[in-house]
């Protein structure tokens, strides 16, 4: 008996595409999972454009408004701003709608942290529709973030004239009032502190003038970070305590001593920063810490460029009485220290300076 032959199933041939063809096919909006995947595709953009091709400007503006609202919900504030801008540019005849578009753009700008633009948009909305409370509220919120308390308070008062019972504006008005009081207190505090500082400096300058210590107000301060907050002071016996900057020209290094009594000698001042037991890392050969007798100390004369040598046995008081001595307006004594043990540099130093 002849066996029956089973029909052979023929598998359908799978279409084959080049990588370029696959990319083009699967980029079509039909295969997109989100709107982001569709954006930029000609087919999607063509469909999207139909949404705004109405001859009715109000309809176009409304469509843009809905799109902006959609993006705000998704927290895509930049896109929301662009959408609301499209609605504004559609020039709707409905002025209430136009005011809403400005307000919504103001809200989106606020959420996008463009607070200045937010205030500007809300003011535009209020100008178009003075009864639009939402614009007042957003404007005040942005103004408070910008610390413009007086303007925020004024905006609250204007809005409450439109809606006296508005709880949000009432609450914001209190915040604006509190902020205004706080800012005014800060300004007054800074004003008093400045006046006190000026008074102290005036007393210091007068005291130094009586001692015939020259202050060159034309020279800029030293400007080093270590000086921040450090000032000359006077003790109970009216003795000066100087901040002193020590410069080592050979290495381009500095030391800063915040409080040096005028009764101390230059040698005692140097002992604070140059010790054989703990030499600075840049003094590998210990030229600056082996023996104080090897050190020479100079200050720059007020005449400019001229270096004046100071015996290290002199006190700071005697130093300030030297001819040509001066301090800049930050009232910091600046001393330059070189070592005779650094023979090459010392020779070069003597050749270059004008003593």
From TrEMBL:
GO biological process terms, alphabetically, are:
protein folding
Q: What residue spans carry the region label Disordered?
A: 1-21
InterPro entries linked = Csn1/TTC4_wheel (IPR044059), TPR-like_helical_dom_sf (IPR011990), TPR_rpt (IPR019734)
Q: Where are the TPR repeats?
A: 61-94
GO molecular function per UniProt? Hsp70 protein binding; Hsp90 protein binding
What is one cellular component GO term in this UniProt entry?
cytosol
Keyword terms of this UniProt record: Coiled coil, Repeat, TPR repeat
Q: Which residues form the signal peptide?
A: none
Q: Does the keyword Coiled coil apply?
A: yes
Domain Cns1/TTC4 wheel: start-end pairs:
238-352
Q: Which residues form a coiled coil?
A: 166-200
Pfam hit, one: Wheel
Q: Which family does it belong to?
A: Belongs to the TTC4 family.
Protein name, UniProt field: TPR_REGION domain-containing protein
């Amino acid at each position: 008996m002849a066996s029956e032959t089973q029909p052979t199933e023929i598998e359908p041939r799978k279409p084959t595409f080049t990588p370029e063809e696959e990319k083009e096919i699967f980029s079509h909006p039909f295969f997109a999972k989100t709107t982001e995947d569709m954006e930029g595709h000609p087919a999607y953009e063509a469909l999207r454009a139909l949404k705004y091709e109405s001859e009715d400007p109000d309809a176009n503006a409304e469509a843009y408004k809905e799109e902006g609202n959609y993006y705000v919900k998704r927290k895509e504030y930049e896109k929301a701003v662009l959408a609301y801008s499209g609605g504004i540019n559609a020039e709707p005849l409905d002025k209430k709608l136009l005011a809403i578009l400005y307000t919504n753009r103001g809200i989106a700008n606020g959420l996008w942290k463009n607070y200045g633009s937010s205030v500007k948009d809300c003011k535009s909305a209020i100008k178009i529709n003075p009864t639009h409370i939402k614009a007042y509220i957003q404007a005040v919120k942005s103004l408070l973030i910008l610390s413009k308390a007086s303007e925020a308070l004024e905006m609250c008062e204007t809005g409450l004239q439109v809606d006296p019972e508005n709880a949000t504006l009432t609450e914001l008005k209190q915040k604006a009032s509190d902020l205004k009081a706080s800012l005014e207190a800060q300004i007054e505090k800074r004003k008093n502190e400045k006046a006190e500082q000026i008074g102290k400096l005036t007393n210091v300058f007068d005291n130094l003038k009586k001692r015939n210590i020259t202050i060159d107000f034309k020279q800029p301060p030293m400007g080093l970070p270590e000086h921040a907050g450090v000032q000359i002071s006077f003790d109970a016996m009216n003795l000066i305590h100087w901040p002193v900057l020590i410069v080592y020209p050979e290495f381009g290094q500095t030391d800063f001593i915040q409080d040096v009594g005028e009764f101390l000698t230059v040698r005692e001042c140097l002992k604070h920063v140059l010790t054989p037991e703990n030499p600075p890392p840049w003094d590998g050969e210990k030229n600056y810490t082996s023996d104080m007798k090897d050190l020479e100390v100079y200050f720059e004369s007020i005449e400019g460029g001229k270096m004046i040598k100071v015996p290290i046995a002199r006190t700071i008081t005697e130093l300030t009485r030297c001819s040509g001595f001066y301090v800049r307006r930050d009232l910091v004594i600046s001393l330059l220290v070189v070592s005779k043990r650094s023979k090459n540099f010392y020779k070069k130093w003597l050749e270059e300076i004008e003593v």
